[in-house]
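Input chain follows. Return structure tokens only.
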Amino acid sequence: MPTAADNRHAELLLEVLEQLSLGPATAAQTARRLRRRSRFGRLDRRTQSGLHTLALEGLVESVGDQQELQFRITPTGAVTLERYGRYPGGAAVMFTDLVASTELIGRFGEDGAHELRQRHFGLLRRAIDASGGREVKNLGDGLMVVFAEPAGAVTCAVQMQRAVARDPDRLELRVGLHAGELLREGTDYFGTTVIVARRLCEVAGAGQILASGVLAELAGEEAAGARRALGAIELKGLGLPVESSQLLWNEG
């Protein structure tokens, strides 16, 4: 019969899996993520031990070198997490949208428009990789991305806008961000957190990053420096207005 200590250890392993389901992380990064919500003490040592146990069971795998060793969840780990009905809370969701994308076909033809989109998504994916996000799906004209840490979502959105602004293709991007509990179905996520992020993206203008007040607060200093409060705004399909801010990325 499992002891209380056994149950606590199993709980920690599930929490580690939850965090890694949102993107690769080092042991130190995983412990830092857990500190925001975990009831466990001595998390640095416990996280190291937990990652070792999960790796032996084939639920996570390590990538990179010893100086920057990261861990990521395996398909078996994802199935295990879903079996227990565990979904990350306090995670961040990003939606991007390529502005006036339908006009590209008229200007450049099908092949030319496809090449422009591919280059555009290449810029976005480099920012995602650099900030610890995980692409959930390509929506045709935009991406859905999840992050274990809201600050990472803000960093990524800023890097995306700056990369697109510098790019000679001169395309324009809008971004919506929100944070909260995520419900998962297979490899996809759904629920209110996802809806709010998508609606914020839809109402954003060209070159804008719109973030919910919840995300901006959780992101802390990363979102505090260049932020313009918009107040509560109405979003399609939601009963209550959502406190929102525009994150200003072009400091020049």
